[in-house]
UniProtKB/TrEMBL annotation, chains A, B:
One annotated GO molecular function: transcription cis-regulatory region binding
Biological source species: Longimycelium tulufanense
Residues covered by the HTH tetR-type domain: 8-68
Keywords recorded for this protein, A-Z: DNA-binding, Transcription, Transcription regulation
Coiled-coil zones: none
Name assigned to this protein: TetR family transcriptional regulator
Gene3D superfamilies: Tetracycline Repressor, domain 2
Length: 207, 207
């Protein structure tokens, strides 16, 4: 294996081991030794890639941050209406959280303010802004219920999505986050979407 | 001050100081010395009340657990319909979280699985069950929208309420949790409540 590939594989092995250990016991309770043991990497190799456990957490947060724009662009290119795009994008996000331990650990670390002291900003304003943009698009296309304010609806949607992930991750390490998220839509959309859009969406769900 | 009262006051001072420090820096990052300094209590007096920082966390969790049945009973005795009771009870819960640092710290600790290793169960199934019971009452009184399943609606409401608290606590130590929770209802109730009930509720809000 060429040296660069080997370095990349080592880095990936460390991130995966860290994600799995943090998933199991939480960031604070996980000693570096457990991550080394699980990754099969020497201390020397570890410190070549990461100066500290905190640097590892920052790398995990960065790894999940890199995933979302890609998913969002993919959905933007599909020609769905803004609400279908929002629902499809969110579906892909939670699917990824359920199946990818590195992404899951990164999301959890980015949300748990106390876990690391790296001065990283909370992701919530970012998520609210992304939802707000998508709902602005839906408002422009006449897809929102009368009287619904996109900024307020974005905060409500974000709260429900954050809560579904938090509860699912606490109860079963996010194993049922896809189902818990899917269950939100019939309730949330009733309060957010225009009646005509809802009829089409319910028809499509029955088919 | 009689000895028993003094012991109670000391215990309360320690819990309040711990709650404030955990609020500021998180459980893991808070050393016992910071709690002692803030409470003005000697090490000896501290250990008379609590054997460890973990015992302190368990006491804070117990303190918030004791609050909810009392609030729920108060609302049950008011003769409101089941949905009004649910909304009123939740309003009192978040009001308490916003204004009482001891309760706020206890809720946060009970939710953050990784924070303490005391093997305490997650509170989410309990909250879902409480909401489920109230929604069963609403279903029995014919107040739910056609097709709404109380168990599913309870999970959705719980997710939204948990998320509003988590986001608010991360962004401003729960200062706006009352507003963020209030903002959920118009969206959530549209998906959960029967149309007739909604009309009455919206009329009452306008008045």
């Amino acid at each position: 294996m060429p040296q660069q590939h080997r370095a990349h594989a080592t880095r990936r092995a460390i991130l995966t081991a860290a994600a799995e250990e943090f998933d199991r016991a939480g960031y604070s309770a996980t000693p570096l030794s457990a991550i080394l043991r699980r990754s099969g990497v020497t201390k020397g190799a570890f410190y070549f890639h990461f100066p500290s456990k905190e640097a590892l957490a920052t790398a995990l947060i960065g790894a999940q941050e890199a995933v979302w724009p890609e998913l969002r662009e993919r959905w933007a290119g599909r020609g769905c209406d803004p609400l279908q795009t929002l629902i499809g994008f969110v579906g892909d996000v939670v699917e990824r959280i359920a199946t990818d331990a590195v992404v899951r650990a990164g999301v959890r670390l980015s949300c748990e303010g106390g876990a690391i002291d790296a001065g990283l900003p909370s992701p919530y304003p970012l998520w609210e802004r992304a939802l707000h943009e998508m709902l602005d698009g839906a408002a422009g296309a006449g897809l929102l219920r009368e009287g619904v304010q996109p900024a307020s609806a974005a905060r409500v949607l974000n709260a429900a999505l954050v809560g579904a992930r938090v509860v699912s991750c606490a109860l079963n390490r996010c194993a049922d986050v896809v189902e818990r998220t899917r269950e939100l839509w019939p309730v949330l959309l009733q309060g957010v979407a225009a009646e005509e859009w809802l009829h089409d969406w319910e028809d499509a769900a029955v088919r």
